[in-house]
Amino acid sequence: MASVPRSFLLLSIIPTILILCADFACCNTGRKTGDGLDTDFSGFSVPLEHSFEVDDVSRFRMRGALQLRGGRETSVSLSQSQLSEEDRKTLKEVAAVDGLYKIRVPRVSLTDRQTERQMDGYLTAFVRACSLVESHLSDVITLHTDVSGYLIGVSIVTIPGACRGTEVEDEVDLEAFNTTLTIIAPTNAPQPETALFIERMDIEHEKRGKPQEQKSFFAKYWMYIVPLVLFLMMSGAQDQSGGGAANGGGR
Amino acid sequence: MAKLTSLFVILLSFFCISEAVFEDQVGKFDWRQQYVGKTLFAHFESNTQSSKKMFVATDKNIFASFNSRTGDLLWRHVDKTGPEGSIDILLLHGQDALMVVGDGRLLRSWDTNIGGLNWEAVLDTGSFQAACFVAIQDTVKLVAVLKKAAISLHYLSNGHQKWVENLPDSDAVQYQAVYSGGEEEVYVLGVVPNSHLTIIAYSLEDGEIIKSVEASWLSSIESSCVVVGQGVLMCVDPATLALYTLPIQAEETPEFSQILLQSLDLEVFPGFQPVLVSSQPHPARSPLSEFFLQLGPDHHVLLQLNADGYTIAPLRDFQPAFLVSFATTGKKTVAAVMTPKNETACAINLFSVDSGRRLLDTTVLFPLEPNGGKPHTLYVHAFLKKDDSVGYRVLVQTQDHALTFIQQPGRVVWTREEALADVVTMEMVDLPLTGTQAELEGEFGKKADGLFPMVLKRLSSQVTLLQAWLAHLWKLFYEARKPRSQVKNEVTIETLSRDEFNLQKMMVMVTASGKVRREGVTASGKVRREGLFGIDSKSGSILWKHYLENVQPNAAFKLIVQRTTAHFPHPPQCTLLIKDKDTGLATLHVFNPIFGRKSHIALPALPRPILQSLLLPVIDQDYAKVLLLVDDQYKVTAFPSTKNVLQQLQEMASSIFFYLIRSDQGNLSGFRLRKDLSTERIWEVVLPTEVQKIVAVKGKRPNEHVHSQGRVMGDRSVLYKYLNPNLLAVVTESTDTHPERAFVGVFLVDGVTGRIIHEAVQRKARGPVHFVHSENWVVYEYWNTKSRRNEFSVLELFEGTELYNSTVFSSLDRPHLPQVLQQTYIFPSPITTMEATLTEKGITSRHLLVGLPSGAILSLPKMFLDPRRPEVVTEHSREENLIPYAPEMPIRTEWFINYNQTVARVKGIYTAPSGLESTCLVVAYGLDIYQTRVYPSKQFDVLKDDYDYVLISSVLFALFFATMISKRLAQVKLLNRAWR
């Protein structure tokens, strides 16, 4: 049993994991009963169930097991079995009547202690059965967690997502899921970028401010001021002499 | 480069400045109506015929003065909302209006002339009980305020406290009344319910005398006792059906003397608590010895206490009589009595108090509107005419909070619809075409039924057109003879028609005022007064109103336009969904939004609580959109539910999805409709309530259009928007309110598939969160607990440079998650509400309309809230006209669309497109209602008002003639040349 999680550990470094059919998955269903202390280090698994019925009444059956690992780097991996002959038939029938293919996972917490992990209720998502058939069972399942590590939602899409009505002849295409699995935690919304802005303003200020500060008013315009002053002095001297003459004349 | 940047910013700001209103445009396209709320206390200024002022204090914590000739506001003081600013009592004496505010927190004196505050005194703690004026030697100098455990006397001139006395044994005794009859004593009356009455007499200087009177039948002084005559306490006991009198001022221990109502030949209406009404015309004198006793809902008796103080003489029996009121002018006191006259009117008459005789020529008719409320309170302003007879004007408050002022002889001077101070929700509906236009339209709308009838129809419609034209000509001719001032362009329901650009619309407003105050015994309990109003958006005049009775106090409303005016001859149809918040049971009120008339349509039975309602784009054969109501067993009821509709629903069932949100459980779930109108749950998202709670969910507005699919970037490639019409923005707040750990969560969830498109957490933030969800963006505003400031954040979703499926959007077929860009800014003001502008085709750039607590409405260009604003300016970003990132969002005063017309306590902003692409109609409502137009990209499709038609046409003509002449000249020249 211990060897199985180890292989998962290795895989879990990559957040997006592609798992092809794995026959050993059947041994890994249900909740793992580990002791509470090392829960943050060893993962635990929850069932992934699916339902596809012609009459659209949900009857969930086991599809695979999700291996969840909480802690600093949350990771998830999936082990699932092939679709049986009967299931394939039903799926094609459901696709023919434009029914839905639903999946569900139980509400769990990735960080809390084992005892509190399981809450009542499930998280459900769906995709049109026809698009699942037409995409040859290649689906993308995304698990969403909130800030404190609770699973809050699951979503499933197929690639391609459209239903074009193309007939899937080859039964082999519908045997195994080609699943891309991701777990997404909330992103932190940005704060106002004050520091960067101030830095930029400072740089701009320096660029613009320095040469201006160094040159004083006089240093900048001396070429205009000096001739003006000279001119004034010259004309002033003339005035004085002229004025003196006039005064003298008056006396 | 820096210089270029700054130049660019300056240029941009110039571009924005041009949005401001020019002086000559003030009031041209906008109007504001100021309201005060439900009147609690009303007083008239003085008892002369010429006085114009009246004062009201309302349940919205407003003290205001009206001009009684016009009903306009002279001044208004808006205090804090909630119990902190509630007005406990308003007393008027001469030029002073005294007010106790905030359950005995403050005592204020106002100058009634200008509305200025004379003084304000902080009172000791304790809940307010009663207050009255106290006179010393015939002049009113003091005011007594009775609290639960103390009485204080204040000078009227400056508010200083004369003395304060603790009331003895205030734990057991409920002190409820204070009385002063002009003597040297103030009496405080307290009661130990069903045991005894305590009278404490305080001498104005000091000292107290305590008397205790056995009164085992008395439970409340407030509701069953009044003081009449020379200080006689008159109480009524509904159990023994008797009146009790007690002289308060008696020296020795007095005793109640009993007078059985039977001995006066009076009978109480079964189950009715009798009410006494008395009057003290002047605080320096004792009250009148005449008083009213109300014996039934419409039965009043005028009684007189004889001089001995023990016996009572009936003066006059009024039955039926809705309302009674005393009014005093000079030495004369009269009683005004409102009696029902017929279905449409009530008559008000004056009676002499001394004799009970009717005064001649005092009848005033009060018109009762069929859809209005019943009269509730009567305020009479009596005055002496020149010939010494009593004249009066009367203010009637009806149950729908409307105030009507009536003058002799029965002329309604003005009406104020105070219910509009509390608008809950509103819609704007297009006006119908004119009758003649509609006639022509209708001709094409009907099915063809043979050649001959069609010709007849055409002829008849043309005859009506001719008729209308002739009538129009006659009207023009007739009015041409009248002086211009008399020709009024009044808007009436009959003349309503759509204008050329669909700028004039009908505003349908739903009002509610759920505040239940301690009212008189006659109040009918916790029934909320709901009103529906139809208002012309151009002038603001109220065209119709409808008063809905018996709506639960905590009801939630949803106003749905099921059929617009575009489907003549079918009338437009609006549906108001009224849902009781406790039980979830819902009722529908279907009406015509243009005329306000209730439609007589078979309503579906809704026996189960309603969880969700959704309007489908499916229309029935009468062009009404189908409303689906989902009950708590997830069964669906369609309205209208004709065969046609049910058939359509069956066909479409597999493509009808809806979502339900249970915010108390943090549960979001999606359902799909089945053919038999049952539903199946197809997705479920659960946000654990231990971590966060859902505060609000918003989808996109269904009438929103987006013109451009993408944005052209600097390098000429296109960034396509993620335009998911089913996207829901879910905003949560953390349950942990510690400033370091609090957060605001924003989830974007697809409403069809339940897929979480984006999940972001704003750390160190808390609400109240205001947000707008439109196009491909979400803008939200929150309080940053760390930096202690308000911040705006914008999220934009893009598909990338390639569209997945450019022809149609389907939530079921969009496997790739969009790119999400986000940026946050500091906003220097708190906000109260937020909405985005909306235009017909979505070509015009968007603005955000932000209601600020100051009453201003800011029109913030969306351009400033763009997560692609670059930190460092590049060639590409300049090419794209992106503003460089600045952390602080500016507030420019020229962005205030309501210039100085502040809207007090903005609660909501409603936007509606007009027929002009450039123009968006805006209504801001709160205490006031403000309507205006905004042009986010300026008026690019409208010629300016001062457009010079003369110059343009003269230039055109000049050019035309010049070409003619030159052509002629050229011809002549050519001819000449040919001859040569």
Automatic annotation (TrEMBL), chain A:
UniProt superkingdom: Eukaryota
UniProt membrane topology term: Single-pass type I membrane protein
Alphabetical UniProt keywords: Endoplasmic reticulum, Membrane, Signal, Transmembrane, Transmembrane helix
Localization of this protein: Endoplasmic reticulum membrane
N-terminal signal peptide: 1-29
Cross-referenced Pfam families: ECM10 (PF21203)
Annotated GO CC locations: EMC complex
Family, per entry: Belongs to the EMC10 family.
Oligomer and partners: Component of the ER membrane protein complex (EMC).
Name of this chain's protein: ER membrane protein complex subunit 10
Organism (species): Oncorhynchus kisutch
PANTHER family, per the entry: CHROMATIN COMPLEXES SUBUNIT BAP18-RELATED (PTHR21397), ER MEMBRANE PROTEIN COMPLEX SUBUNIT 10 (PTHR21397:SF4)
Keyword Transmembrane applies: yes
TrEMBL record, chain B:
An example Gene Ontology biological process: protein folding in endoplasmic reticulum
GO CC field: EMC complex
Record's keyword terms, sorted: Disulfide bond, Endoplasmic reticulum, Glycoprotein, Membrane, Signal, Transmembrane, Transmembrane helix
SUPFAM superfamilies named among the record's database cross-references: Quinoprotein alcohol dehydrogenase-like
Keyword check for Acyltransferase: no
Signal peptide: 1-20
Subcellular location(s) per record: Endoplasmic reticulum membrane
Primary location group: endoplasmic reticulum
Domain of life per record: Eukaryota
Record domain ER membrane protein complex subunit 1 C-terminal: where: 774-979
Residue ranges constituting the EMC1 first beta-propeller domain according to the UniProt record: 20-418
Topology relative to the membrane: Single-pass type I membrane protein
Family to which the UniProt record says this protein belongs: Belongs to the EMC1 family.
Quaternary organization: Component of the ER membrane protein complex (EMC).
Name the record gives this protein: ER membrane protein complex subunit 1
